[in-house]
Structure formats: C-alpha cells, structure tokens
Amino acid sequence: MHALLHDIGIAVIAATVLGLLALFLRQPIILGYLIAGALVGPELGFSWIQEAESIEIISEIGLILLLFVIGLEMRIGDLLSSGRQLLVVGLGQFPLCVALGVGLFLLTGYGFSGQGSMDGLYLALVCGLSSTAIVVKLLYDKFELDTIAGRLTIGVLIIQDVYAILVLAFQPNMADPQAWPIIKALGSSAVLLAAGFLLSSLVLRHVFAAIAKSPELVVATSIGWCAFVAGMAGAMDLSKEMGALVAGLTISAFPYSVHVTAKTLPLRDFFLTLFFLSLGMKITAPSWELVGPVALVVAFVIGSRFLSIYPLLAVSGAGRRTCFLTSLNLAQLSEFALVIATLGVTFGHIKPDLIGVLVYAMAITAVLSSYSIRWSHGLHRLFERGLSGVGLGTRRIEVADAAAGHHPPVVLLGFHRGARALVDLLAERQPEMLGKLLVVDYNPEVLAELKRRGVAGAFGDLGSADTLAHVHLEHATLIISTIPDMLLKGTDNESLVKTCRALSPEAHIVAIADHAQHDQRLRAAGATSTLLPYGLMAEQLLGLVDLGASGEAANG
After folding, report:
1. Would the pTM of this model clear 0.70, i.e. be above it?
2. CA distances for 369 relative to 159, 276, 360, 419, angstroms
3. Statement: residue 116 has pLDDT above 50
C-alpha cells in the first residue's frame, strides 16, 4: 500500500475512535482529534504515521475548502451591514494586540532584534491572529454564524487573514525592513479580488448557465474554480487560502451557491479532521521548561482579545453581549502562527524552541475555545453578574416609547419566522394593530426594521429575567414566545414561561412546543396555550389527504 494511503487510513481510524470516545464522554470532538494525532504521530505517540508531511498537505486542502465554503456562505452585503463596528474592530484588533504583545513580551525578557533573537516580536505578531478553522467549525455547529457576533467574528477573521498575508510578505525582510514587499502584497491582493470577480462575471456565469441541469458538474466546476483561484493566488505569492475565499465569494451571488455548499461540506469536514490530527502530531513531549512560556502565551491570547476587541466594539456602539461573545469567539491561536513561526526559524529570526511553545499554546487554546464557545451564553450571564456585583451594571435594554409610558398589550419574545409572519399578516390585514405590539430581540437590525414598520422594539437578552422585567410584562395581556428551544441561546421556553408567569400572573402566555410531552411541561410551567408547529402542519395536510383519497376513490 502506498505510504500516503496507509497514513490516511491510520489517521481516519484514530480520529474515528477518539472522536467517538470524546462524543461518549460529552467532550469537544476537536479534543479527541488532537489526542488521536498525538497518539499516532512521531513526536509523542507510537509513530504509526511515518510521513506526517503528507497529512499536512491534506490538512492544507481542508483549510482551502474551509475558506471556500466560508466565501460561498458569505454575503458581502451582510458583512457591510455590520458597518462601522466591523471596520473599527477588524482594522484595530490586530495592531492593538501586537502593541500589547510587544509591551508584555519585552517586559518578560524576550528579544526583539538581531539574528536569532526576535522571539518577542514573533510572539506579538502571531498571538494577534485567531483560528479560522476552529472558530468557523464551532460556530457552524452551534448555528451561530449568522448572528451579529458570528458575522463580526467572521469579518475579523477575514481581515486577520489579510494582516497575516502582510506579515508573510514582510517576513523575509524583517531583519532589514523594506516597503516594496508590503506594497506588492497589497497590490496583488487587490488584483486577485478584481480578477476573480471579473472572470466570474464574464466567464463563470455563462459556464454555470450551460451546466445548470447537471448538479454533479456544477459542484465539480465549483471545486475546479476554487483550485484555479487558489493556484492563481499562490502564483502571485499570496495565500492559497485567500484565493479560496475569493473563489467562494465570486460564486456566492449565483443561485447555485447553496447546492455547492451542501455538496462541499462533507469534503471540508473530512480534510479539517486531518488538519486537527496533524496539529496533534506536532505535540512534543512536555517538559517543565515549557510550562511558563506556554501559560504566558495562552493567558495573553485570551486576555488580549478582551483588551482589544471588547473596547473597540463598545466604542463603535455594539452591545455588551456582542462585545463579549465576539471577544470569546476569537480567543485562540491561529494556524497561521505555526506557518509564520516555521518560516521564522528558516530565516534564522527565532529559536526552534519557540515552535514547541506555539504548538502547545495552539492545542490548549483550541480545547479551551471548544468549551467556551459551547458555553458562551452561560459565560456571558456570569460576566454580567460579575459586572453588576462590582457596580458596573448598566441598562441592558432600550425600549421604544418607554419615555412616553407606552406599554403595548401584546409582547412577542423574539422575532423568529413565526413572529415575522404574524407582523406581515397584521400589516396586510389589520395595520392598526401594529402599534399594539412590542417585540423583544437582541438583533439591532431587526429592531431598526420594526421601527420603520411602526412596531415598538426592545433590545435585550431573553435569557435574562432583568430584561423581561424592564419591558413591563405586567402590563401585557398576551405574551408569545416565537422561538423554538433549538434556536434559543442561554434559555428555553419552559424557563421563559416560568419567568413571564411570575412577572405577569394574569397574562395569556403562548409558547412553542416541540412535542406532546414538551406541551405538558410548558403548561405546567404556566403557559396558557402552546403551539405545536408539526401538529398544525398535520392538521392542514389532513384535509389535503382527504381530498386526495376522495379523488382516488372517484377515479376508481
């Protein structure tokens, strides 16, 4: 058997076994993959994989496919809708983190100049970058890529990739800085972006139109386009990952992007599994000498995100929830850190020992992020309680018309599809009723839309009892929870019903139930009535089934 096939087989088996064990123990699957890589690798494990370079090549394909899928799912309009917030935090986060890193690592004795003694500068640079692979996978699994914090997180990651490209362009001349490589990198990036969109408009659009009736060919062409643009980026001395992102962006406006995304995800997940395995293979035998530097880097990566992202978002007008979640989402070390550090060793800028520190720091922050992003909403509630405990609590919501003492009788908790459909129907049939609604949601874009439509809105976290108290639920005669448990963050419908019933004992409370047993629990918690979406669908379909059966009988 070819060595590559042998290594892939061993890697997949190890990833499956350790991934299943992590799932059984209710631990992050990424942790299982890292342990699997360490066990089969040459550094710490049984050396079952001899050619780790082959796995690294395949893991790079995973990163390329990851950026391609991000581009497919990204809508430039959605990113631009983040406006000033994304611009401020995206452009300011990396320089601020680097400045903080320079100060810290200078104080802790790391070198900043001279051949082989630029460890401090490299640490400051690489610690400002976060991991696209880890963050996107975790947010995708939580269905939070399309939230405000999710979109800001992805936007920051993209801008970080541009900064990483600039670092890579600047790196060969770091000992003797020159402006031309940086200018060349910026110009090449602009040319790549313009060429990608121009070719997709003039050529790719017509190709897709000709093959639209063959779904398999659409996918093959899309992956071929990804490889072409990634190769073009490589030929221009840019990151292949950036080329893949541009390839995805140019297809995202086509109607085929959803189909391509669905077909590409399994490939991406397979290759990303090998990426985490390859990271585990780099883990060396631990020693006491590593403990201090690794702990310092891990602490700095986490702390620097809250010292840079949080204040930048706060200054640009984001809420505390968005500030906290975005900072938490980005609190890990990037895969680019190892690339930059490895080149630093090749150029003689840093000592080889620094690679081991970064590998451990990246593995630790990857695991910590797996837990923190999973529990992000609970951690945010603890954070809010801590601020309130030291007297730093502020108003959590802003209620439209509160100053005028306006308390609408109908309160919608969340503006999910059901609530949106209700507002649309009222606007069409009973527009005078819109002034009697109050919607509580944490999406400022939703609240701005509601304001334009004449509906009162309140910004706040449904998981917080303080939020519900501040909207004066005691004046409501009807309270409707419109979001199913699967999409609620930090709470559930049963908890919402209990809180609403305590605040408004006389109100009619309606909540979404997933099944009959859930319906019983909601009613026991205080719900006056419940909505079973699938039950309502079945009632509608029943009439159609009767008609269909009657038609068959008549034909018979």
Report:
1. no
2. 20, 14, 14, 33
3. yes
